[in-house]
């Protein structure tokens, strides 16, 4: 076992949590599940894998992750944070073993970015700019926090960082009904962020950091005309970045996750601005 504590957030994740826990238990003897009220078999599966279970009401992902960092009795100095549908690949497990062997990582390194590979209904999405996307998920005790955002929260560290090559697998198996329901809620949260940006403790657009660079690209996207930018983004990802090579499930993914979701955000943003502007007088 490696000197890593693993933290997993769950809510009604019975379909994927077993594989996530199995991959976590393969590298760690200290696996924690933070559940926010599951009513399916999630907790039974977690107990079966020997996970340490904590319950905490869900406010948003950032608050939940920071509660876990501040509260859980993590045994090791390094902590790896996963969602319930993310698992450690064999390549990442081997890389972690090599990284933590001997004297371990350089003392100057506070955390590591891990590339995420999306599997959408068991089909890997390797094109359309979806691979690799780096996320800060492995960091030293006391050096990492999660942004205070309602949507698209990322971890950040106090200190230098590096990148790993082995991926974590984001195994999306939600029904399309549930997946689109969640994106509907996330669209509301993103509109909140656009209209009332968070203050301190948020990664700003910039260079030299994977998340900061992505935020810089997003800033450019939001300067483009409302609605038309969703069409442009879909064409960019599906045609220019060759998302069409990911097959039929790739088509479903890019239409819903790129075009439909981004168009929905714009529609909700337009609706919110119209309401806040108040009724217009008839000409």
If you had to describe this structure to a student in words, what would you say it looks like?
The protein has 283 residues and is an alpha/beta fold. It has 2 domains: 4-172, Alpha-Beta Complex (Spore Coat Polysaccharide Biosynthesis Protein SpsA, Chain A), CATH 3.90.550; 176-277, no CATH class. The chain is 40% helix and 23% strand. It is built from 8 helices and 12 strands. The chain has helices spanning 17-25, 42-48, 61-71, 90-99, 176-195, 210-221, 228-240, 247-277, and strands spanning 4-10, 30-35, 52-55, 78-83, 86-88, 109-120, 123-125, 133-140, 144-146, 155-157, 160-163, 168-172. The strands form 2 sheets. Strands 1, 2, 3, 4, 5, 6, 7, 8, 11 and 12 form a 10-stranded mixed β-sheet that branches. Strands 9-10 form a two-stranded antiparallel sheet. Strand 2 (30-35), helix 2 and strand 3 form a beta-alpha-beta unit. Helix 5 (176-195) packs across helix 8 (247-277) and helix 7 (228-240) packs antiparallel against helix 8. The chain is globular and about 65 Å long. The model has no long low-confidence stretch (mean pLDDT 94).
Provide a short characterization of the protein structure.
The chain is α/β, with parallel strands linked by helices and 283 residues long.
Q: What is the radius of gyration computed over CA atoms, rounded to a whole number of angstroms?
A: 20 Å
Secondary structure tally: strands? 12
Number of domains: 2
Task: Give the overall shape.
Answer: globular
String of helices and strands: EHEHEHEEHEEEEEEEHHHH
End-to-end gap:
73 Å
What do we call the CATH topology of the largest domain? Answer: Spore Coat Polysaccharide Biosynthesis Protein SpsA, Chain A
Residues in helices, as a percent range? 25-40%
In the CATH classification, which architecture of the largest domain applies?
Answer: Alpha-Beta Complex
Tell me the fraction of residues in β-strands, as a range: 15-25%
Specify the CATH homologous superfamily of the largest domain: Spore Coat Polysaccharide Biosynthesis Protein SpsA, Chain A
Mean pLDDT, all residues: 94
> Spans with pLDDT under 50 lasting ≥5 residues?
none
| Chain oligomer state | single chain
- Helical segment tally? 8
């Amino acid at each position: 076992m490696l000197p890593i504590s693993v933290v997993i957030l769950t809510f009604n994740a019975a379909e994927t949590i077993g594989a996530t826990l199995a991959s976590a238990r393969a590298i760690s003897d200290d696996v924690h599940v933070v559940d926010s009220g599951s009513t399916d078999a999630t907790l039974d599966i977690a107990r079966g894998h020997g996970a340490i279970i904590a319950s905490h009401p869900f406010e948003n992902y950032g608050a939940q992750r920071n509660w876990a960092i501040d509260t859980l009795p993590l045994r090791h100095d390094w902590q790896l944070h996963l969602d319930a549908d993310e698992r450690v690949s064999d390549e990442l497990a081997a890389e972690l073993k090599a990284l933590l062997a001997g004297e371990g990582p350089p003392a100057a390194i506070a955390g590591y970015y891990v590339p995420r590979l999306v599997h959408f209904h068991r089909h890997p999405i390797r094109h359309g700019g979806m691979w690799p996307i780096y996320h800060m998920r492995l960091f030293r005790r006391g050096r990492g926090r999660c942004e205070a955002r309602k949507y698209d929260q990322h971890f950040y560290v106090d200190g230098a960082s590096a990148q790993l090559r082995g991926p974590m697998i984001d195994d999306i198996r939600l029904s399309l009904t549930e997946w689109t329901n969640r994106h509907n809620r996330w669209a509301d949260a993103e509109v909140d962020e656009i209209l009332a940006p968070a203050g301190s403790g948020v990664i700003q657009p910039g260079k030299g950091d994977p998340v900061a660079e992505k935020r810089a690209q997003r800033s450019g996207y939001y300067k483009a005309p409302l609605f038309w930018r969703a069409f442009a983004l879909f064409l960019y990802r599906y045609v220019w970045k060759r998302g069409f090579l990911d097959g039929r499930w790739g088509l479903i993914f890019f239409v819903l996750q790129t075009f439909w979701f981004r168009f929905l955000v714009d529609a909700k943003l337009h609706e919110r601005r119209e309401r806040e502007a108040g009724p217009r007088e008839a000409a």
